[in-house]
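Quick question, first post here. What does this chain look like in 3D?
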Amino acid sequence: MQDLPVTLGNLRKSNFSEERIAYRSVKDELRQNLICRLQRGDDLFPGVVGYEETVVPQIVNAVLSKHNFILLGLRGQAKTKIIRMLTALLDERLPYIEGCEIRDNPYRPICKRCRDLIAEQGDATPIAWLDREHRYVEKLATPDVTIADMIGDIDPIKAARSGHHISSELTVHYGLLPRANRGIFAINELPDLAGKIQVGLFNIMQEGDVQIKGYPVRLPLDVMLVFTANPEDYTARGKIITPLKDRIGSEIRTHYPITIDHGLSITRQEAWTDRSSPARLEVPNYIREIVEQLAFLAREDKKVDKRSGVSQRLPISVLENVLSNAERRALRNKESVAVPRVLDVYSALPSITGKLELEYEGELKGGDNVARELIRMAVGKVYTNYLEGVNVAQIVQWFELGGSLKLDETVDSSKMVEQLNGIQGLMEKTEVLSVAPSDPDALRASAAEFILEGLYAHRRISRNEELGFTAGERKREAAAGEREEGRRPPRRQFN
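> Answer (accepted):
Ran it through. Tokens below.
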């Protein structure tokens, strides 16, 4: 920063010449930098997974076309993350007239204060520099946002103190949009913005200028406008008025992860699992897959409101909660390794129910019951992926012969392994999950419990709060019938 020009005269002699700065708009700048990155083969949106063939090409087309655009999609689809990453397409630094509230172009000032300053000081006019991060302004749309917040207003106190006429441009208190001049202005949840405020965006999108409070103060702003919106909001809380929608160059639809692998990558990237702890934390792949499958199943379930969607934040929060429950158990039992179990997924219900908007049928059933059913279905799917075709008849038979096992999420791993060893054939099957007898007890206990939960999910065995895992319902009913038949007197037979 010390080598950068600090006066207008020095700026004219530098690489930031008038030809380079004066007539290049922010949309031209974004376009040129995007072209360079495309030619180099750079990753345009690092960390954004699953949009490579769908959303990203459409955003590229919008920027190349110099469009204002909107990202339209349900909650938790990385809309805000993407628009914030657009700053990477801006120049690293940009000169402006020092002290200007709207970061005026030194070669083509639009505000009266800067024009007067250059007329007075000429080449001695002080220059400051903007980093690309400071050229991004974001506003969450709410119904209480006013025109003054977005565009600006005449400040009578400023007029009185400075001695200027109230209609003078020097008395303007600028809103967020003018302060985003020469940068990117983002509005999140656009439909929540009152209709009359949306009307105030017309001029900047069509004519490139704004008017303040009906006074003859017009500012030809240079700004890239991007919006986000949820389709549900068009009917639930508000709408994008038609004239404004017509002026948005591109409407780009976002979506949830299409494949489980994409979802796993996003959750692995965003969830806080790499944490310091007295216990070493390990998350088996089948636990990660259960948590991710839970979100996919919820998006398809008829009891969950599809218009609201199931945010990708659900598996992220659930995985964090699951790991915390395993960590709490390990710390309480003074274990050196913490490994989540399926029981820990059930303990994460608070991070599930708060993110599900239920339909009428789901409301009748109750959020907890819907979540428990989704967990059971997720365990069943993942179990099939790992153990389909594996002979588990010996395990099932153990329960059918009267065996039962009640698991407690707080029990230490060694004691749990001791209990699980009593079930014939169970611990041998953990090798299918790449778990060896020499592995820590916490990992072996988690794998064995997953197998039992999978059998329960497929109705091979049963489980309830009082008895824990027992024989399947049909087998118990058949056994009860046989016992009842044995107590009855023999039937008389007639010749």
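The chain has two domains: 8-253, 260-478.
Residues 491-495 have pLDDT under 50 and may be disordered.
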